[in-house]
């Protein structure tokens, strides 16, 4: 190829990549702007503090109530429950695959786990209705099993492939020299894993967990199907909950255009946006703290 | 001189690749023995067989008898962790843990349930000629130290466990001349307490620090003897060619 063509291609690609990069920024900025703009219309009617701390969500009542605390608590409860289940399982599985499993078993486990990520959320939600829900109802003698625990279990299953895959990559990427150093001073495999490998892989593991949290907070269909959607203040894992995502999904289709209720759903979405943003920032903070020891 | 570490009829292969053939070699107590030879001759493989580092490679096959004094190193009744505690190792590339300087020394002590108070840490760092440089920064990440300091930290980490033997796999190959000299000085000093086996590509280094030298070629020991004899009056023609730089 001629030198001039090569040079102009170089310049052209530089701009193409710059544009794609800026497009991502523009998309993010656009989404945020749309959410905030519509939320403002809502906050003209309802005070932000009343919205966040209000104990009742009943936008279609005679006197509409726009308190989203039950929704925030529902999302938090389900996400928290999912992580309590998924984090130990996910990190344990990742450590097993990376350090203990024979190559043969590894070759079976990894694709199977990745296949789990390909199961559509509506199928998982379906399993929640016909399998997990009735199971919980039987075990805890409840009238039905459509509650926060059901949602948490299903979300844990959905977050697991992400957590396992990313955490396994992180554990696998720990330099062999660290492990040799640990074995060299007489450490067992387990001591090496707990005290050297997992701490060294911590940034990646935290990133894995944060991705899992993001998945759980944002997941809609599964929780919509499995948690019963009662917009009351939840008191425990056995209560029916209505998460923020489910609220938007259920009510957006039926709400009259550009009413307070319509704008309220945008306001929920804005809060959701900031919740995931905070989750990511917290993750980033921890990642940087651990990175300090890695960079020479 | 008492024999500290020995190998009899040692053969090691990885899969179908034979790396060491009928090795018979022994190392004396409180001496420094250098293993020299061209790349791929099996120096590191031999070194790592003594603290059973090959246990980590599933395809390694080892036959023969390896002994620490009268202890069979591959005796199933003896935990490998005990052997690695008694036979310490310093690696080619300094590999401090991504933890603080203090934690780097304390790690080995903690996992072996040994006392890991400040005095113990200080003693190990002093022995590795590192204390004066780091005494005010014990909480600093070890990765911020210079290459030479990191390697001395790794030596301190090995020394802290009070091993009987220290194996060193080209400990200076990644270091500048000044750091190298400092580590050589340290190694010479350490032989009073420990038996040291060092793999090196640097023939001047072998002459500077080693009491005995073993020349290996293609998985076999070709010649061993006093360092001065190996370098001044080698009996084997191959040794002569290697130390003269005719191949390697």
UniProtKB/TrEMBL annotation, chain A:
Keyword Metal-binding set for record: no
NCBIfam families cross-referenced by the UniProt entry: phosphate_pstC
Primary residence: membrane
Record-annotated membrane-spanning stretches: 12-37, 71-100, 112-136, 148-171, 192-217, 262-282
Name of this protein: Phosphate transport system permease protein
Cited CDD domains: TM_PBP2
Membrane topology: Multi-pass membrane protein
Function: Part of the binding-protein-dependent transport system for phosphate; probably responsible for the translocation of the substrate across the membrane.
Entries under InterPro entries matching the protein: MetI-like, MetI-like_sf, Phosphate_PstC, Phosphate_Transport_Permease
Keyword Nuclease: no
Subcellular location: Cell membrane
Annotated ranges, domain ABC transmembrane type-1: 72-283
Pfam families referenced in this protein's UniProt entry, alphabetically: BPD_transp_1
Gene name of the record: pstC
Protein family membership: Belongs to the binding-protein-dependent transport system permease family. CysTW subfamily.
Taxonomy of the source species: Bacteria, Pseudomonadati, Bacteroidota, Sphingobacteriia, Sphingobacteriales
Keywords associated with the record: Cell membrane, Membrane, Phosphate transport, Transmembrane, Transmembrane helix, Transport
Superkingdom of source: Bacteria
From TrEMBL, chain B:
Signal peptide interval: none
GO MF terms, alphabetically ordered: ATP binding
Residue ranges of every copy of the ABC transporter domain listed in the record: 5-243
Keyword Iron: no
Alphabetized InterPro entries for the sequence: AAA+_ATPase (IPR003593), ABC_transporter-like_ATP-bd (IPR003439), ABC_transporter-like_CS (IPR017871), P-loop_NTPase (IPR027417), PstB-like (IPR005670)
Coiled coil residues, start to end: none
Matching SUPFAM superfamilies: P-loop containing nucleoside triphosphate hydrolases
SMART domains registered for this protein in UniProt: AAA
Record keywords, A-Z: ATP-binding, Nucleotide-binding, Phosphate transport, Transport
Name this polypeptide is given: Phosphate ABC transporter ATP-binding protein
């Amino acid at each position: 190829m001629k030198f001039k063509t090569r040079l102009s291609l170089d310049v052209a690609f530089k701009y193409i990549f710059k544009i794609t990069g800026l497009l991502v920024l523009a998309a993010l900025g656009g989404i945020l702007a749309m959410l905030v703009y519509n939320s403002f219309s809502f906050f003209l009617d309802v005070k932000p503090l009343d919205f966040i701390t209000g104990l009742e969500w009943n936008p279609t009542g005679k006197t509409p109530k726009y308190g989203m605390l039950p929704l925030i608590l529902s999302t938090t409860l389900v996400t928290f429950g999912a992580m309590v289940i998924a984090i130990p399982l996910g990190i344990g599985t990742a450590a097993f695959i990376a350090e203990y499993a024979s190559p043969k078993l590894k070759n079976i486990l990894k694709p199977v786990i990745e296949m789990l990520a390909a199961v559509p959320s509506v199928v998982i939600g379906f399993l929640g209705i016909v399998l997990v829900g009735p199971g919980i109802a039987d075990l805890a003698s409840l009238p039905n099993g459509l509650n926060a625990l059901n949602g948490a279990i299903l979300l844990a299953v959905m977050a697991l492939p992400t957590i396992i895959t990313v955490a396994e990559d992180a554990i696998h990427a720990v330099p062999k020299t660290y492990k040799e150093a640990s074995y060299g001073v007489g450490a067992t495999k387990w001591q090496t894993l707990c005290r050297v490998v997992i701490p060294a892989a911590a940034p990646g593991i935290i990133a894995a967990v944060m991705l899992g949290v993001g998945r759980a907070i944002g997941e809609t269909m599964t929780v919509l199907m499995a948690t019963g959607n009662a917009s009351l203040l939840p008191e425990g894992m056995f209560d029916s909950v209505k998460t923020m995502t489910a609220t938007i999904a259920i009510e957006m289709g039926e709400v009259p255009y550009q009413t307070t209720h319509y704008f309220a759903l945008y306001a929920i979405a804005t809060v959701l946006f900031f919740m995931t943003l905070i989750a990511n920032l917290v993750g980033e903070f921890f990642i940087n703290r651990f990175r300090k020891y890695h960079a020479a | 001189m008492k024999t500290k570490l020995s190998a009899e009829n040692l053969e090691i292969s990885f899969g179908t690749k034979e790396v060491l053939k009928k090795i018979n070699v022994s190392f004396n107590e409180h001496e420094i023995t250098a293993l020299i030879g061209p790349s791929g001759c099996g120096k590191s493989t031999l070194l790592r067989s003594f603290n059973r580092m090959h246990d980590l490679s599933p395809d390694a096959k080892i036959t023969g008898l390896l002994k620490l004094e009268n202890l069979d190193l591959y005796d199933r009744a003896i935990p490998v962790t005990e052997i690695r505690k008694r036979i310490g190792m310093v690696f080619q590339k300094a590999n401090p843990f991504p933890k603080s300087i203090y934690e780097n020394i304390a790690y080995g002590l903690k996992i072996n349930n040994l006392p890991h108070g400040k005095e113990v840490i200080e003693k190990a760092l002093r022995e590795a000629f590192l204390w004066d440089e780091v005494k005010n920064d014990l909480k600093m990440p070890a990765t911020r130290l210079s290459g030479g300091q990191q390697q001395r930290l790794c030596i301190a980490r090995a020394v802290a466990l009070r091993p009987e033997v220290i194996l060193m796999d080209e400990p200076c190959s990644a270091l500048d001349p000044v750091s190298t000299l400092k580590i050589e000085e340290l190694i010479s000093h350490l032989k009073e307490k420990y038996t040291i086996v060092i793999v090196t590509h640097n023939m001047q280094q072998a002459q500077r620090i080693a009491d005995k030298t073993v020349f290996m070629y293609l998985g076999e020991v070709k010649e061993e003897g006093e360092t001065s004899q190996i370098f001044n009056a080698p009996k084997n023609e191959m040794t002569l060619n290697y130390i003269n730089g005719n191949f390697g």
